[in-house]
Design goal:
It contains nine helices and no strands. It is an all-alpha fold. Residues about 1-5 have low confidence and may be disordered.
Length: about 190
């Protein structure tokens, strides 16, 4: 009988996440995962489950890590407008410098529409981002750092919708300057 290999589960999840990030859910084979994680398939099945369960854990790990990083980074900035600008600039940096773009957006377009468990994780990530941004928008309005002709909800939706468009544009054109220009235009619109 084969012996199950002991392993660092957090490291294994991180390595599996990288494989899914590069190849997508459908393009990733179990062999790709076990090789990257440095374990055999029985250890994977016994400790985590099947490919789908591993993918859910990877997406959760990715989105929760982003949430924690954003909360920490933006919590240090006193001006809500400056925090909003930082979030947008950080997003532009990630879009144009991370080799595999955003795992959450890639997942949304690949399988979230047909997979309820994945959709639940992506919705939680989206809700977090929306709540983070609307809080900053409301505080910036209260402090008169920005003025809006529409309500805060509309402005927040307007900001959020740019991110997926920028991802698509960068995937197609690979033009960092183009994305930066669009972000600068968005920031100029918000700051009016």
């Amino acid at each position: 009988m084969a012996r199950n290999v002991e392993f660092d589960e957090e490291l294994a999840i991180s390595r599996a996440m990288d494989v899914f990030w590069k190849k997508g859910y459908n393009g990733t084979k179990m062999r790709d995962l076990t090789e990257a994680m440095g374990i055999n398939s029985s250890s994977l099945y016994n400790s985590i489950g099947d490919k789908h369960e591993l993918f859910i854990r990877c997406i959760k790990h990715y989105t929760e890590s982003r949430m924690a990083a954003a909360t920490k980074q933006l919590g240090r900035i006193k001006s809500p407008l400056k925090a909003l600008e930082k979030f947008i600039q950080s997003s532009v940096y990630a879009i144009t410098n991370e080799p595999n773009s955003c795992l959450a957006i890639k997942t949304t377009f690949e399988i979230a529409a047909s997979d309820e468990k994945v959709q639940k994780v992506i919705k939680a990530d989206n809700k977090f981002t929306y709540n983070l941004l609307i809080d900053l928008v409301n505080k910036a309005i209260e402090k008169k750092e920005i003025t809006v002709s529409q309500d805060a909800e509309m402005l927040t939706d307007y900001i959020m919708n740019h991110f997926s468009g920028w991802h698509e544009s960068f995937i197609i054109h690979q033009d960092k300057a183009r994305i930066k220009k669009m972000a600068d235009f968005l920031l100029a619109q918000i700051s009016k």
